[in-house]
Amino acid sequence: MSSNVMSYGIMAPLNRKLTKEEREEWQEILWEQDSSVHLSYYNDMAYTEEHGDEYGISFGEMCPVTIEDFNDLKQFGIWIEEDKARSYRCLWYNGADSDMNMMTREKFLKRTNQS
Fold it and tell me: Residues with Cβ < 8 Å from 64, sequence gap 6 or more?
């Protein structure tokens, strides 16, 4: 059954755009390795994802992941642009694609005032 989900983590542009085949293969490997790193559908962004309570109060930096989690990408010869990385928190409905999966480099840079 679908429901609302609160996700949080770090999002950053990749050093290059991936092919569809690379993304599909590498995302599967990351999943099998139980990595918190995900690759966006548009092949140019990476993000970590943890889940939390969607209701209630939280204080300060609540993200247990760090920029080092993206080291999981080194096995593929890719990396993130660390200077552009930003933390995020997103409430989304898991009956549809998440905002994280649908994020493009262009939208990310614009929304984070980096373009």
Answer: 50
